[in-house]
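Write out the 3D structure for:
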Amino acid sequence: MIKYLVVWTIINTNASGGGTNDDYEAFASLAEARDKYIDLVHHEDTYSATICTIVESTDYEPTTNHLEEV
């Protein structure tokens, strides 16, 4: 079951005029989500990155336990 989303914004240095690109990836465990988050934080073009839980969604089941130990 999907419990976490990592969402991020990358500064687009290849496009004329710059800009940003937003993206996300879904994860079943907090450990996997943290791995992705850490990778993003160390990328020089990352503008922002966040780990989120599913509270309400049309795509995913809500997470009932928002705190998971790693």
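The beta strands are 4-11, 20-27, 46-53.
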